[in-house]
Amino acid sequence: MANHPDYALASSIVRFSDSRVLRGQMIIASHRLKEPAKYCFSLLFRNERILGLDIEPGRSHRNLLRGFSVMETHWQAWPKMEAEPYARNLTFGLWVTEFLNRANVKCMHPIKAPPRGVQLDLPL
């Protein structure tokens, strides 16, 4: 996804309040064209995804422990990383709030909605 032109990515370092050494990373990916909007939120620790929220995913997630697939919006949490369906329909700003609350992360800066559509290069 990182080098795919149809996606916009944003990432930020996440610091643990009681540690000067431990850090994580939050990554938000957005498909520029898909309708309804497709977003992927990830909280990484030591380069491993420990919390994920996939909104309107393009493919199903196979739950190995439960033995079924989830195609709709879902959460995944460490250690099992099994997809838990989530049937809410929110705006980008509310999705960010949901993710930050569940991750217990405080954001010190406003987060803007990702770019939508593609700029066309038209000759003048």
Could you describe the 3D structure shown?
The termini are far apart. The protein has one domain. The strands form 2 sheets. A 6-stranded antiparallel beta sheet has the order 1-2-3-4-7-8, with helices on one face. The protein has 124 residues and is mainly beta. 10% of the residues lie in helices and 36% in strands.
Task: Name the descriptors.
single chain, 124 residues, mainly beta, 6-stranded antiparallel sheet, two-stranded antiparallel sheet, 10% helix
Biggest sheet details = 6 strands, antiparallel
Helix content class: under 10%
Domain tally: 1
Q: What radius of gyration results from the CA coordinates?
A: 16 Å
- What's the average pLDDT? 85
Question: What general outline do the C-alpha atoms trace?
Answer: globular
Distance N terminus to C terminus?
Answer: 33 Å
Number of strands: 8
* Structural class assignment: mainly beta
Helices, by number, come to 1
